[in-house]
Amino acid sequence: MSAQVDGFIAYFGLEDWWLTEFDETERRHIEKNGFGKSSLTQGTVTATSQTAPGLIRAMASFWQPTVEDEILIQRLIAKASEIESKN
User: Fold this and answer.
1) How far is residue 24's CA from residue 53's CA, in Å, rounded to a whole number?
2) How much is the pTM?
């Protein structure tokens, strides 16, 4: 995955978090198994009714997790909670 991030991640200004919190393998895994849509990091999002915490929680809830996935899910939920506490 390149350092250029678009889609919902860019729309919500989460590029730095996305690139520093998860390594390339984890990002691909979340995109494929935790979201299932290329719009997470590709394309241009001009408007959405989704919120940043809602998007992150959706990323954490889309797949049937393995034990290893639980760690990713905990990290996603932590970021959603952090954003919510700031609002």
Assistant:
1) 22
2) 0.80
